[in-house]
Structures are given as structure tokens and as C-alpha cells.
Amino acid sequence: MTANTKSWALHIALLVTLFTLQFVLPAYHQGNIARIMMLAVFAMGYNIMFGYTGLLSLGHALFFATGMYGMGLSIQHLGISPATAFVCGIVAALLVTATVGVLALRTSGVAFMIVTLMFAQSGYLAVLFFGEYTRGDEGFVIKQAQRVIASVDLADATNRYFAALLLFALCIAVTLKLVTSQFGHVLVAVRENEERAQMLGYDTFKYKLAAVLISGTISGVAGAGYGLLFGYVGANFATVQYSIYPLLWVLLGGAGTIMGPFFGTLFMFYLIDLASDLTSAYMLIAGVALVLLTLFARNGLMGEIRKRVLPWLP
Amino acid sequence: MDLGPYLLLASLEGAVQAAVLALTAVGLSLVFGVMRIVNVAHGEFFMLGAVFAWWIATFFGGHPAIGFIAALLIAPLLTGLVAVIVDWFVLKRLEYDPEGTIVATIGVLYIIQQVVLMTYGPDARPVEAPFNHRFYFPWFGYSSYKLFVIAAAIAILIGVWMIMAKTRIGLVLRATQLDRETATAFGIEVNRIYALVFGLGAALAAMAAVLIVPIQQAHYLMGGDPLLLSFIVVIIGGLGSLRGTVVAAALIGMSDGIISVFFTPTLAKILATLLVAMVLVYRPNGLFGTRSA
């Protein structure tokens, strides 16, 4: 088997496992896994920039929240169908990503991180400022009747699980295709040594912008999907915390791997879930994990596996 | 009240803001200038200063002035110590890699914040001002403690400037800032200097917090705003330039104070944040700075 067939086989096996889990898991965990799959889509989007292109953004909550609010606000105030609203959310995320990308990519390194952080912060404040429409911190609920696409009720737990799985599978396929293509290899070249890639004749700005666009749009898809599937849109999802989360998930799972973001999200979600039963200071776990990961395990879970066992892992 | 006195009141409030902000931001700027790292946990050092101040003031009891003076002396020391520990166990091991330290200090931010939540709790608690005299203008009375905050901040800033400009340790700091390798070649122990600078930066934030805590209560989430504002100030003032930082802090603190008297604070914050992003995009060296990020 070539490396390519092996990796497709592995990822399809993961999807089949997730499919069958639906029939085995108790309701509580079924809901959790659906959430994790949507958040993993967010993390996979983040990973395109951070893991494959080497651009560390601290503002991805902006793209996630734009997708979510683009979808939620157009259902709430324009009264359009959920499917159209979902597309609205994605288009909104694409537009915001394009603006932020063109501006932020004029900087690099630490300045890039701060610029993305600042844009995300103003996005969060804008949600609060337009509280009349967004209901600010409180957020708003998308009613069950507004969550039916093609007579499939997304508020139903089973439907919701399969919808999340569908989006997750699509995202796996797209990113896997992307990173094994020539385009993906150029992104990695930019990550490893931008000047060298430039010398070889690649317009690195274009490649980086494309990576930002893809990354931001996937994050928007995750946001719109999350809002639609779980029926709630709130300012919480626009806070810095939601910019830090994808970074944490990707670092834990393994930056620059396709499955890494999923396993990172899975572990961190359950870790925080367990911790929040014990104490209200559950974010302590996230803090400790961030410090330990940067100190001792820069490769993350899948990165270690790739290094030791499966060198062909994409 | 007429517009004149109203404006005077607004500028006084702005000056208090600016004084505290200048102290906090100079701490951040010092760390960035000498160590070339961005400390995202800086706001939590501010918060630690306030929380330590409450503990110390409660411990001493008696006349509020005793507790306050003790807090002003001890809280920055304790906070500096925490920072030195962070430097020793985390930053040094990362070899001060710029991106790695940002991620790690985000982790430190959560660790400090959540440990304070677990120990100090979610309540906001006040520290009593050392004196509570009111100073009477013809139009309104104004707390003399707030005037003291402005004076104290200026005194501390002059102190920092004296250390940087006139003492041997200041010379060593500036040498390290200018060229780390040459400094090492001249026998300067760069690692120790880094620990010292990181501690000093945190201590300055803590001092600012001790000064503000009689006006604003100590709370485990109070580090967010100072962090954001210090970022803004340090960037506008030019990364690594202490003079620029102080000028920018005065500018932004004053205008923030004045604007928030007349406009909604959220809109002011949105505009300020976007402005800073734009400054970084088009003038990456800051408005007064000479170096790039």
C-alpha cells in the first residue's frame, strides 16, 4: 500500500468508528462527541494556518463567531431558512477572514499574533456593542422549528450526531486532500523556511493568504454548524478563550497532522468536563496543559506517533 | 455643572487612569525591550498585586495606612518572586523563543488566574485607602487619595528612569537590550538579568495594582483590561521604548478617561483596539519606536 492509500484507510476507519459509536454510546456522551466533532472542525481549520503554514493566530474566535452570528442573526432577524442562513454564516466568515488576512499578513511573528488578537477582541466588543440585535453576553436561542433542514430536525440527538459527523467527514476529506496536494507541500515549505520558498519562485504572500482564507472559512463552517446543531448563539464564543482553545487542542493533538486536532479536542474536552465537576477553576487544566505542552511535547499526540511509529501520517 | 469643571473632573479621572496605566505598561515594555518576549500573563501579575495587597492589608489590620504601606512594599516583592519563578521554570527552558513564550505565558495566565479563584475566591474585595481626605475645588470635591496615586506613580516612574539611566545595573540592562551576545561576551550573566527584568516588570504591574486597589476592588478577573491597555500603550509608544511607553500611556489614559465620561466605553474600546491593530499593520515599529517587533 502506498502512504496515500494507508492514510485514507486510517481516516476512513476513524470515521466508521465514530459512525458505529453512535449506536453504542449513552445519550450524554453521544451529545459530547457531536460537540467534539464540531469543535474539531474548528481546530482542523486552525491547524491549516498554525500546523501547516506556521502562522500562529490568536484571533480565531473571530472567524468561529462570525460563522455562528452570520448564521444565527440571519435566522433571527431576516427570517430565512436554516440552510440559507448556514451559507450566510460561511460567506460572512469568508469576508471577515479575507479582510483580516490581507491586513494581518502585512506583519509577521509576534506582531501577527497581536494583530489577530486585537481584531478578535474588537469583534467580541462589537457583539456586545450591538447588543440590541445580538443580545450581548446572554446570547439567543435558535428555536427548534428554525433548525429543520430538508425536513430533518437537527434538534434531534441522532440527527444532530450524523450532521456533525457529516461535516467532520467532509472537513477530514478536504484537509487531507489539501495537505497531500502540491499546494499543501508549498504551505509546509513556507512554514519551514519562507525565504527559501520565495527564492524558489513561490509568491508566499498568496499562499499564506490562501491558507488564512481556507482556515478562517473552515472555522466559520464550524461556528455556523455549532450554532445550528446546538441551537445557541452567544458572545462567549467570541471571547479570547475561544481563540486559545483551538491552539490548545491542536498543540495537544499534534500540529500539522490531520487527526491530531480531533484527538486533542477529545482529550481536552473530557479533561475540562471532568475538572469542572470538581472545581469552578477548571481552566487551570488548560493553563497547565499549555505550559507543559510547550515545554515538553511540542509535537503533540499524533506528532509523537508520526515520529515513532507511522512516519507516513499526513 | 458647566462644561469647564466637568472637563476638569474628566481629566483628573483620566490622569489617575494614565498614572496606573503608565506603571503597568512600563513593566511590560521593559520585559519586551530587554528580553524580546511578549508576556501575556502581565495582567495577571497586576491582579496578583491587588490580591496580595488585600491579604497583606487584612493581615496587618489596625489603621488602614499601616496595611497600605505594608502592601505597597511587600505585594510587589511577592509578585516579582512569582515572576522570577515563572522565568526560571518556564521561560528559561524555552530559551525565550518568542512564539513559544507567548503560548506558555497564556498558560501561566490561566494558572495564576485560576489558582487565585480557588484560593481567594470569586468575590471582589476592597482595600481601604490610607487616608480619605477630600480636596475641595470650587465646583466639586475630589478624593485626595486619587491625587496621591498620580504623584506616587510619577515618583516610581522617575525611580525607574534613574535606575535605567544612572546606575550600574541600568547600564547592564541597557547593554543586554542592545546586544545580548556582546553582553554575554563582556561577562554579563544574561540569564540572571532576564530573571531580574521579568521580576521587575511584574513588580511594577503589582505596584500599579496596589495603588489602584483602594479605588477599584481586587478581583480575580481584573487582569484583562490592564493587559489589553498595556499592549495598546506599548505598541503605540513603540515596542521597547520606555519613553514612548510613558508618553503613550499619558495620551491613552487621559483620552480614555475623558472619552468614557462622554461616550459609551464599549465603542471607545472597539475604536481603540482597531486603531492599535492598524498601527501595527502599517507602522509595525509603533508611532515613536525605532525597532521592529
Describe this structure in words.
- The complex is a heterodimer of chains A (314) and B (293).
- The model of chain A has no long low-confidence stretch (mean pLDDT 86).
- Helix content of chain A is 76%, strand content 3%.
- Chain A has one domain.
- Chain A starts with a helix and ends in a 6-residue tail after the last helix.
- In chain A, helix 2 packs across helix 11 and helix 3 crosses helix 11.
- Chain B has a domain of 201 residues.
- In chain B, strands 1-2 form a two-stranded antiparallel sheet.
- In chain B, strand 1 and strand 2 form a beta hairpin.
- In chain B, helix 1 runs parallel beside helix 5, helix 2 runs parallel beside helix 4 and helix 3 packs antiparallel against helix 8.
- Chains A and B meet through helix 5, helix 11 and helix 13 of A and helix 4, helix 9 and helix 11 of B.
Order of helices and strands of chain A: HHHHHHEEEHHHHEHHHH
**Strand pairing plus helix content of chain B: what structural class?**
mainly alpha
End-to-end distance of chain B:
46 Å
Unreliable segments of 5+ consecutive residues of chain A? none
Largest interface: A-B, 39 and 42 residues
Number of helices of chain B: 11
**Strand tally of chain B:** 2
The biggest sheet of chain B, with number of strands, parallel, antiparallel or mixed sense and barrel status, is:
2 strands, antiparallel
The number of domains of chain A is 1
Strand content of chain B is under 5%
Give the helix proportion of chain B (percent range).
over 70%
Please report the number of helical segments of chain A.
14
- pLDDT under 50 segments of chain B (min length 5)? none
Query: What is the overall shape of chain A?
Result: globular
- Tell me the number of strands of chain A: 4
Summarize, please.
The complex is a heterodimer of chains A (314) and B (293). Chain A has 314 residues and is mainly α. In chain A, 76% of the residues lie in helices and 3% in strands.
